[in-house]
Amino acid sequence: MTRTADTARATDTARATDTARATDTTHELAAFLRTRRERLDPREVGLPSPRRSRRTPGLRREEVAELAGVSIDYVVRLEQARGLRPSADVVEALARALRLAPDERAYLFDLTRQRPRAAGGPATSTAAPSSVRLVADLSPLPAMLMNHRYDILAWNGEMAALLVDFAALPPSRRNAMWLCLLHPEIRERYVDRARVVREGVAHLRAAWAAYPDDAELNARIAEFIARDEDFARRWAERDVKTNGHGHKVMRHPGIGTIALNFELLMPLQDADQRLVICHGADEESRSALERLRAL
């Protein structure tokens, strides 16, 4: 019994450590640089093919250092999470050396606090009255306003009919990611839920890098890691993605299967907020939305 209890405590401690590191920028920077280095084939960066198989995948640290124009010791210290804060020039050099995609480059700049924050003040948790009116005026298209945490700040009747009566939920549950992951009914509505979760996690990771000191956001992420294995696995993969549009297919209990395209727009005055507008992806889905409004 003692050995079992000790094992359980050790497992809980390790899990808590992993969760804490998941929202620590120093350890995340180290892990992100390491995973991006390991995925690169030397031939992709103009290095000759090795004559013998390498013991580790991807590039060596010394190769990254040479490509970025920094010392090997500097790369080692970054990957060992020793608390370095690279300059903007070094971040740009690392991004080029590691062949980062645009979203990954922005993520690296956010992790190192080298990307200027967009104008508009600190992150907000409420919607401006003008934004609330805009969401309502977008009817009959389903629309809602979210902040960087995926908290739903405003919605119109069509969006509530499509997903859930947000007004009936506690404020802490008015969160698009929480609904997708943990709401017993909403989570089953997504036909391709695995893809939706993967893309949602990639978006949330990018948002976290921009607001790493947001205690509420860190608490959300810790909850998702602890309660949803799919989220925890996706978060550990460190995929980063931001885009302004997408596609989802849902099973609605009142209207059946519906394919939706959606657009994400950013208000200039609130750069951390996103306006989500949905419309039917085909004629059948547009007709389904009309039936939903009638309901």
From TrEMBL:
<dbReference type="GO" id="GO:0003677">
    <property type="term" value="F:DNA binding"/>
</dbReference>
<feature type="region of interest" description="Disordered">
    <location>
        <begin position="40"/>
        <end position="60"/>
    </location>
</feature>
<protein>
    <submittedName>
        <fullName>XRE family transcriptional regulator</fullName>
    </submittedName>
</protein>
<dbReference type="InterPro" id="IPR041413">
    <property type="entry name" value="MLTR_LBD"/>
</dbReference>
<feature type="compositionally biased region" description="Low complexity">
    <location>
        <begin position="1"/>
        <end position="23"/>
    </location>
</feature>
<dbReference type="Pfam" id="PF17765">
    <property type="entry name" value="MLTR_LBD"/>
</dbReference>
<dbReference type="InterPro" id="IPR010982">
    <property type="entry name" value="Lambda_DNA-bd_dom_sf"/>
</dbReference>
<dbReference type="Pfam" id="PF13560">
    <property type="entry name" value="HTH_31"/>
</dbReference>
<feature type="domain" description="HTH cro/C1-type">
    <location>
        <begin position="58"/>
        <end position="105"/>
    </location>
</feature>
<feature type="region of interest" description="Disordered">
    <location>
        <begin position="1"/>
        <end position="24"/>
    </location>
</feature>
<dbReference type="InterPro" id="IPR001387">
    <property type="entry name" value="Cro/C1-type_HTH"/>
</dbReference>
